């Protein structure tokens, strides 16, 4: 029989941390990677966010809702990287 946790830690912080990491990763890819390689590196960055989300959620040590938390982290990372990618895409077609 398992004993219930008295005060479980909130897991939303780990989800938002992965989103912030995705934003920083997307911005650094957009700044340091040449234009023709950005799409490929953004896919690699999303894979890194997937591994990071697994690591963060495994660090919490709670099995309840693990799949939902990882899915929310990865989906948020996908949206963040999509917005960053759209921003850099618009920046390349708009003349300065």
Automatic annotation (TrEMBL):
It comes from the Bacteria. Keywords: Membrane, Transmembrane, Transmembrane helix. The chain crosses the membrane at residues 12-33, 39-60, 72-94. This is Uncharacterized protein. It comes from Microbacterium rhizomatis.
């Amino acid at each position: 029989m398992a004993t219930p946790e008295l005060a479980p830690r909130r897991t939303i912080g780990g989800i938002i941390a992965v989103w912030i990491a995705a934003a920083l990763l997307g911005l650094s890819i957009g700044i340091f990677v040449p234009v023709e390689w950005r799409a490929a590196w953004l896919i690699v960055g999303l894979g890194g966010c997937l591994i990071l989300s697994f690591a963060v959620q495994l660090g919490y040590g709670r099995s309840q809702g693990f799949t939902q938390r990882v899915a929310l982290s990865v989906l948020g990372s996908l949206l963040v990287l999509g917005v960053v990618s759209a921003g850099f895409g618009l920046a390349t077609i708009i003349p300065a």
